[in-house]
Design goal:
The chain has 136 residues and is of the alpha/beta class. The chain has one domain: Rossmann fold, CATH 3.40.50. The strands form 2 sheets. The chain has a 5-stranded parallel beta sheet with strand order 2-1-3-6-7, with helices on both faces. A two-stranded antiparallel ribbon has the order 4-5.
Length: 136
């Protein structure tokens, strides 16, 4: 199992997603970006990203479709919602439906690094547990 953090960024709004990709590079996370759920579906299967950062809405769906794509893939990953401003109601709804966390610009290194590390460790544990179950 790799210790490399690879994330998928899903969205078609340049701001805040481009600044997020720059911030992720600063915390040593490799990224690929797509603009739709359809493209995300293909990359999730091909690359098995550890983390998926998604905008609330994309051209052909929403964060909820992204969560569903991850669940259908069978490979654990954490979805992190990227929003322009905090929304407690949306946050609670998303967490209840499988989103790991929220990020809001500006993307400061220390808080982003903490979220990335926590989410990555969670995924690594779930992938290890899944591998053990498959071997048993």
């Amino acid at each position: 199992m790799s210790n490399k953090i690879f994330s998928l960024v899903v969205g078609d709004d340049i701001y805040p997603l481009e600044s997020l990709r720059e911030a992720l590079r600063d915390v040593e996370v490799d990224t690929a970006a797509v603009t739709s759920c359809e493209k995300a579906a293909r990359l999730i299967v091909q690359t098995e990203p550890t983390l998926i950062f998604t905008a609330k809405m994309v051209s052909d769906g929403s964060w909820l479709e992204i969560v569903s794509l991850v669940e259908k893939s069978g490979v654990p990953a954490n979805v992190i919602l990227v929003v322009k401003e905090p929304d407690v109601g949306l946050y609670l709804n998303c967490i209840e439906r499988g989103v790991y966390d929220f990020v809001v610009p500006p993307f400061e290194k220390a808080p982003l690094s903490h979220i990335v590390r926590s989410a990555w460790l969670d995924v690594q544990k779930r992938r290890t547990d899944l591998a053990r179950l498959e071997v048993a």
